[in-house]
Amino acid sequence: MTVSTPRHVLLTGAAGGIGAFLRERLPAYGYALRLFDIVPVPGDPDAIAADLLDDTALRAAVRGVDAVVHLAGISQEAPFEDLLRSNIEGTYRLYEAARAEGVRRIVLASSNHAVGFTPRPAVPGAAVATTTPLRPDTFYGLSKCFGENVASLYADKYGIETVSLRIGSCYPCPRTVRMLATWLSPADCARLVHAALTAEEVHHTVVYGISANARAWWDLSAGAILGYIPQDDAEVFAGQLIAELGEPQLEDPEHTHIGGAFLTTEP
Ligand code: NAI
Ligand code: 15L
Question: Is the pTM of this model over 0.90?
Answer without folding.
Answer: yes
